Amino acid sequence: MAIDVILGLQWGDEGKGKIVDYLASQYDVVARFQGGPNAGHTLKFDGHKFVLHTIPSGIFRKGLVNLIGNGVVIDPITLRKEIGKLGDFVPDYKERLFVSNKAHLILPTHRYIDAASEAAKGQEKIGSTLKGIGPTYMDKTGRNGLRVGDVYSPNFKEKYEKLKEKHMGLLKLYPEYEFDLESEEALWFECLDTLRELKNVDGEYFINQQLKEGKRILAEGAQGSMLDIDFGTYPYVTSSNTVTSGVCNGLGVSPHKIGEVIGITKAYCTRVGGGPFPTELHDETGERLREAGGEFGATTGRPRRCGWIDIPQLNYTIMLNGVTQLVITKIDVLDGFDEIGVASGYEYNGKHTDQVPFDICDGEVKPVYEMHKGWNTVLTAERDFDALPEAARRYIKTLEEKLKVPVSMVSVGPGREQLILRAVADVVK
Ligand code: GDP
Ligand code: IMO
Ligand code: MG
Question: What is the pLDDT of residues 145-192, one digit of tens each?
Fold first, then answer.
C-alpha cells in the first residue's frame, strides 16, 4: 500500500482539516508529519466545531488510528488542552492516538524565546504564532532537543534542566521580556503524564508495519507549501518542510511509498503573518474576501491578508509537491463577486515571468490579472459539478487548464458534507 498525502499549496489555512476529516473515513490511519501547535485545522460536522492543533484530523472517525509523527513538535500543555476539548466525542482516544518517540518537545522556554525574539525584530518580525516552533526546530537541528521517548529516561529531569539553562542564557539577551517560568514549568511536567498515557511508539516501525499489513494511510500536512523552510518565502516561513518530501522525513517512510498527492488551494488566496504576498488586495475587495471568508486565524485569531488566486505561485508548489489531484476550497466565498481575479503571470524587473523569483521579498513582483465573470449564485447547497452555474464551472476549468492537474473536489462550505466530488477520470487533464 501507498501513503496518500494532503497538503496546502498556499500559505496555510487552505481547509486541510475539513478535507482530511471528510476523507478519513476511507483510511485506516491519519498521520501528521511536521509542524506543531502553530497549525489550526477546523472541522465542522453535526453542528459541532473543533479546531485541532497537534492531533490529526482523523480523530473523530470511529476506530481510526491517528499518529503524531517524528517530524512534529509537541507542546504537552497544548496537547492536553486539545485532548480535553475532544470530550465525549472520542472516549477511546488513548487507544487511537499514537505518538512517535522521536517527536521533539516544545518547552515553555522555547515559547518564551519565540516571543522575545519576535518582539525584538520589530517591523521585520515573521509574525510567528508564538508557539515555540522555530526555537524547538532549532534545538532539533542543533542536536540539543528533548524527544517524547526521553520522558522515560531516568535522567530526563537532568536533560530538561540542561536545556532550560541554555534557554535562560539566551533569554538574557532580551532583558525587557518578562515571563513566569515556575508555574508554566510545573504545568508542563504535569502535562507530560497525559502524553505518557497515549500510545508512545517507534513511529517509523509502526507506520511501515501498517503499510505491510495493507492499511490505508493518509498523511496530513500542516501550514502551506509557501511556508516551507526551504522553498517558501524565506525568511517569512515556518521551520519545517511542509512539502511532500516532509512526509518521508516526518514519518520514516521511503519516497516509493508515496501515492496520491492531494494539493489544496482556496479559490482565492490568504496569508497570515508577515512576508510577501504578490496578489494581496489592500482595498475594499480584500476586505470583502476577509468578511465573506471569515478569514481570521484558527490559532491566533489574527485577521488574514486576502487576495486573488495566484497561478505562478500554485504552479510552483504543484511542481514541488508532485500534486496528482487538486481540491479547491471556499469557492462559495466568491458567490457574491461580479468579477474574480486570477493572476496568470508576473511582471518582474520589467519582464514577464511565470516563475516565482528568488527574491520575492523585494516587492517588485507585480501580478498580471485576468478577470473572470462571477456567478452571483449561492453555491453552498450544491453537490453536483454539472449543476453549477456556467461561470463557476468555467472558473474551475480555467484553473485546471492553467495548473494542469485535475480538480477532484470542490468545497462549497465549512461542513463535512459540503463538497462536490468529481471522478478524476471525468476531468480534462
Ligand atoms: P486548515 O488550517 O488548512 O485546516 O484551515 P483552517 O481551519 O485554518 O481555515 C479554513 C477555514 O475555512 C475554517 O474556518 C473552515 O471551517 C473554513 N472552510 C473550509 N472549507 C470551506 C469552504 O469550502 N467554504 C467556507 N465558506 N469555509 C470553509
Ligand atoms: P495551518 O496548518 C497559516 C505562519 C505564521 C507565520 C509563519 C511562522 O493551520 O495551515 P511559526 O509559528 O510557524 O513560527 O510561524 O508561519 N503559520 C501559519 N499560517 N496557517 C498555519 O497552519 C500556520 N502555521 C504557521 O503566521 O507567518
Ligand atoms: Mg489553519
Answer: 999 999 999 999 999 999 999 999 999 999 999 999 999 999 999 999
Q: What angle do CA 128, 249, 275 make, to 5 degrees?
A: 25
Among 246-250, 285-289, 324-328, 363-367, whose mean pLDDT is lowest? 363-367
How far is the centre of ligand 1, averaged over its atoms, from the C-alpha of 15 (Å)? 4
The pTM assigned to this predicted structure is 0.97
SS3 annotation, 297-335: CCCCCCECEEECEEHHHHHHHHHHHCCCEEEEECHHHHC
Our answer on whether the CB atom of 329 is closer than 6 Å to any ligand 1 atom is yes
Residue 424 predicted with pLDDT over 90: no
Q: Are 268 and 256 in contact (CB under 8 A)?
A: no
Q: Of all protein residues, whose CA lies closest to atom 14 belonging to ligand 1? A: 42
**What integer is the mean pLDDT of 266-275?**
97
Nearest C-alpha neighbor of 293 from the set 257, 335, 264: 335
Q: Which three cell numbers stand for residue 261?
A: 498527492
Catalytic residues: 13, 41
Is residue 427 pLDDT above 60, yes or no? no
In the structure, what pLDDT confidence band is assigned to residue 126 with cuts at 50, 70 and 90?
Answer: very high
Cell of 375: 456567478
Sign of torsion over alpha carbons 174, 179, 181, 185: negative
Minimal CA–CA distance to 173: which of 122, 129, 116?
116
pLDDT value at residue 429: 37
Q: What are phi and psi of 342, to 5 degrees?
A: -135, 120
State whether the beta carbon of 129 lies less than 6 angstroms from ligand 1: no
406 to each of 12, 219, 332, 399, how far by Cα in Å?
Answer: 21, 20, 20, 9
**Burial category of 161 from C-beta neighbours within 10 Å (exposed 0-12, middle 13-18, buried 19 and up):** exposed
Peptide bond into 235 cis (omega under 30): yes
Where residue 6 falls among pLDDT bands split at 50, 70, 90?
A: very high
